[in-house]
Design a protein that fits this description.
Chain lengths: 264, 390
C-alpha cells in the first residue's frame, strides 16, 4: 500500500518541501489559515507539530512557538480538528510530529487511530528512537499511517539498516548535531551523510533541522536529498509578526514561496 | 530475557536518535570500565582519601529518646561538598575521563549537584558547564558562587519554568550538540538508560556502608530506613543493599503546600508518563504536559522521579509518603536543636517522616535516617521564613 506521503514523493518528479508549523500557533484559527497559506505557496507536505512542554530536540524558536500554542489551549483535540478541517479542502499530506508523552497519555493506539481518522498521513515522535519504537510503529501500521523515523550522523550502519526496515513514508535525516533552528550554513558532513543513507534505503531521504534558506535547500538537493524539512525559519516569521494577522500570513507565505522556488 | 534498560515497565531510552550512540557508548563504558581494577582503585582513592568516606553512622541519643526507638543518622552531610551528590559526580566524572571526554555538563536545581560536578571537574582537570534555571540562580546565590570559585561556568536557563526541569532540557540539548567531546553528568537516578542504573551503582556505597556499620553496632539489620526522594538518588543508594531483606523502607516526598496545594510528590500524587528520556511517575496534566512542581527544598522540586522508584512503588517494596513544607521546616529546626546537626531541607523531609515511622516501632527497634546533606545552603532561606520565630 502506498501512503499519501509515498505517493507525493513518487508522483512529484522533483524534491519536495515539507513545511513545518506548530498546531495552534498562535491560535487554532490562525494556525489553519497558515497551513492553507503554506500549501498555496508551495508546501508539498505539511508537518504539524503537536506541542509539548519539554521539547528537548527543539531550539528556541520552536520552543517559543510551542509555548504560544499551549498558552492558547492547544491539546491533541485541537491537533485532530486542525487536520480534519485542513483535510476537508486538501489532499496535501500531513505529517504529525510530537513527543512521546503526548502519545502515551492519549494512549498510543488511540492517538494513532484519531490521527488517522482525522486524515494524517504520517507520525514522527522526536524522542522515540528505534529501541522504543515497537508499540508506536505497530500502532501506525495498524492504522495505515506512516511511522516516520529519524537517522542522524551518529547513527551506526547497523542501526541504520534496522531503522530503514522499520520506517515508513520517508527517512527524517537530522542534518545537524543539535536541536532545531536555522543555521548560517549547512554542516559539510551532511552531504556525505545523505549519500550514505540513500545508498542504504529505498525510502526517500529528507533532511531537516538547521535549514532556512533557498540556497541551503539547493545545496541539499544537489547532494541528493529527496526533499527538505523547514521549521524554525518559517515559524520565526510567525514570531516576528505576532498581533498582525495579515502581515503574518504574508510573511509565512513569502518564506514558503522562497523555499519552494528552490525546488522547481 | 529481562531488558536491562527497564525496571518492570519503567525506564527505557526516550531520547532523540542523535543521543543513542552516546548512550550506547556510555553503557559500554559503564559495563567494561567501571568493574575494572584500574577504575576501582582510582575510585577508592577519590572516595576515601579525597571525599572523606566512609561517612559515620551516628547513634542519636536525643532523637532516640524523643522518637522512642534506636535512631541512627547516615552522615552524608559530612561528605566533602556537604551532600551525597559527590559520590555520583566523582564516579561519572572519572568514567568520562577514562572514556576520553574532556568536558562535563550538568544540571542543577539547588546547586548541590552543580557544586559536586564542579568539584569533580576541578580535581580531575575537566571543563565544567552547569545549567541552572534563572529562578534557581536567584534563590541559590551561595552555591552559584561556589561553582564559579571552583572554576565551573554557570549557564542560566531562561526557558520554561526556569528551574531544574528546564535545566535538564537545556543540558540534553547541549549534549545532542557536543556529544563527541562531552559527558552529561546527570545528578540523580533519572534520565535515559543507563543513567538510573549507573547513578544507583555509584550511590550504593551509602547503603553498603550502612549495612556494615549497623551490623557492627547492633549485630543485626535495621528495622526501618527512611530517605527523602526528589529524583531519588540518595534513597536508592541506601535502599539497594536492603531490597532483599526484611527491613522496611520509606521514601519522603515533597508534599509542598499540602493535599490541596502545589507539591513535588510525584509518586504519591502523579501518573506514569515520559519525561527526560524515561518512563516514570510524573506530575502532569490530562494531556501529558508537564506541570511545575513545588517544594520548600529546591532539591525535591522536580516533577519526575527515578524509574526504579516507580517500580518499587508499584511493587509495594518501598512505601512513599508526602511531607509538607511546614513539617520539613519543623524537622529542620528540631534536628538542629536536638542534635546540633543542621540538615539540608531535603533531608529534613526524611527526618519528619522518620518521626511518624518511629511511632509504629518498639523501643529496641533500629531506625536509620539517610541524612543526605547538610543545611548550610538553606540557612538564609530558613532564617527569612522563620524571621522573629527564632
Amino acid at each position: 500500500m502506498t501512503s499519501g506521503i509515498g505517493e507525493a514523493f513518487s508522483g512529484a518528479g522533483r524534491p519536495l518541501l515539507v513545511a513545518c508549523l506548530v498546531a495552534g500557533d498562535p491560535d487554532e484559527r490562525t494556525s489553519l489559515d497558515l497551513m492553507r497559506e503554506a500549501e498555496n505557496c508551495g508546501a508539498d507536505i505539511i508537518e504539524l507539530v503537536m506541542p509539548y512542554s519539554d521539547p528537548v530536540a527543539d531550539g528556541p524558536v520552536m520552543q517559543k512557538a510551542m509555548q504560544r500554542a499551549l498558552g492558547a489551549g492547544t491539546t491533541p483535540d485541537t491537533l485532530f480538528s486542525l487536520i480534519r478541517d485542513f483535510r476537508a479542502g486538501s489532499k496535501t499530506p500531513i505529517l504529525v510530529l510530537t513527543y512521546a508523552n503526548i502519545v502515551v497519555q492519549r494512549g498510543i493506539e488511540t492517538f494513532y487511530r484519531e490521527a488517522a481518522l482525522a486524515g494524517a498521513d504520517g507520525i514522527a515522535v522526536a524522542d522515540v528512537p528505534l529501541e522504543e519504537s515497537d508499540p508506536f510503529c505497530r500502532a501506525a501500521r495498524g492504522e495505515g499511517v506512516d511511522p516516520v523515523l529519524f537517522v542522524s550522523q551518529t547513527t551506526s550502519r547497523e542501526r541504520l539498516e534496522r531503522i530503514v526496515s522499520g520506517a515508513g513514508g520517508f527517512l527524517y535525516l537530522v542534518a545537524v548535531l543539535g536541536v532545531t533552528g536555522a543555521r548560517e550554513r549547512i554542516d559539510p558532513r551532511v552531504i556525505g551523510h545523505i549519500r550514505a543513507v540513500k545508498a542504504a534505503s529505498a525510502l526517500p531521504v529528507v533532511p531537516g533541522f538547521g535549514i532556512g534558506t533557498a540556497g541551503q535547500v539547493r545545496e541539499l538537493v544537489r547532494a541528493g536529498a529527496d526533499g527538505v524539512i523547514v521549521g524554525s525559519a518559517i515559524v520565526r516569521e510567525i514570531e516576528r509578526t505576532l498581533g498582525e494577522p495579515f502581515a503574518m500570513k504574508e510573511a509565512v507565505g513569502g518564506k514558503v514561496r522562497e523555499l519552494a522556488s528552490a525546488l522547481r | 530475557m529481562t531488558d536491562p534498560s527497564r525496571f518492570g515497565v519503567y525506564g527505557g531510552r526516550f531520547v532523540p536518535e542523535t543521543l543513542m550512540a552516546a548512550l550506547e557508548e556510555l553503557e559500554q563504558g559503564f559495563r567494561t570500565i567501571v568493574p575494572g581494577n584500574e577504575f576501582r582503585e582510582e575510585m577508592k582513592y577519590y572516595l576515601h582519601e579525597y571525599a572523606g568516606r566512609k561517612t559515620p553512622l551516628t547513634f542519636c541519643r536525643n532523637v532516640s529518646r524523643d522518637f522512642g526507638c534506636r535512631v541512627y543518622l547516615k552522615r552524608e552531610d559530612l561528605l566533602h561538598s556537604g551532600a551525597h551528590k559527590l559520590n555520583n559526580a566523582l564516579g561519572q566524572a572519572l568514567l568520562a575521563k577514562f572514556m576520553g571526554k574532556h568536558r562535563l555538563i550538568a544540571e542543577t536545581g539547588a546547586g548541590q549537584h552543580g557544586v559536586a560536578t564542579a568539584i569533580a571537574g576541578a580535581v580531575l582537570g575537566m571543563q565544567v558547564d552547569v545549567y541552572m534555571g534563572e529562578e534557581d540562580i536567584r534563590r541559590q546565590g551561595l552555591n552559584v558562587s561556589r561553582m564559579k570559585m571552583l572554576g565551573a561556568r554557570v549557564l542560566p536557563v531562561s526557558s520554561g519554568s526556569r528551574t531544574l526541569k528546564d535545566a535538564i532540557n537545556e543540558a540534553l540539548r547541549d549534549w545532542v550538540t557536543n556529544v563527541a567531546t562531552t559527558h552529561y553528568l546527570i545528578g540523580s537516578v533519572v534520565g535515559p538508560h543507563p543513567f538510573p542504573t549507573m547513578v544507583r551503582d555509584f550511590q550504593t556505597v551509602i547503603g553498603n556502608e550502612t549495612r556494615d556499620q549497623v551490623m557492627e553496632k547492633e549485630g543485626r539489620l535495621p528495622d526501618a530506613i527512611v530517605a527523602c526522594v526528589g529524583g531519588g538518588s540518595n534513597a536508592i543508594g541506601i535502599f539497594t543493599p536492603f531490597l532483599g531483606e526484611d527491613t522496611r523502607l520509606f521514601g519522603a516526598e515533597a508534599g509542598g503546600e499540602g493535599p490541596e496545594g502545589r507539591h513535588g510528590a510525584t509518586l504519591c500524587r502523579g501518573r506514569p508518563g515520559v519525561l527526560h528520556g524515561t518512563y516514570t511517575y510524573l506530575i502532569q496534566d490530562a494531556f501529558g504536559q508537564i506541570l511545575e512542581s513545588h517544594s520548600i527544598s529546591a532539591g525535591l522540586d522536580y516533577p519526575g522521579v527515578g524509574p526504579e522508584h516507580s517500580f518499587l512503588r508499584d511493587s509495594g517494596r518501598v512505601s512513599y509518603h508526602p511531607v509538607t513544607d511546614r513539617e520539613a521546616l519543623d524537622a529542620f529546626l528540631y534536628l538542629s536543636r536536638s542534635e546540633g546537626i543542621i540538615p539540608a531541607l531535603e533531608s529534613a523531609h526524611a527526618v519528619s517522616l522518620a518521626e511518624k515511622v518511629a511511632s509504629g516501632l518498639e523501643k529496641d527497634d533500629v531506625l536509620v535516617i539517610n541524612l543526605s546533606g547538610r543545611g548550610d545552603k538553606d540557612v538564609a532561606q530558613v532564617a527569612s521564613m522563620t524571621g522573629d520565630l527564632l
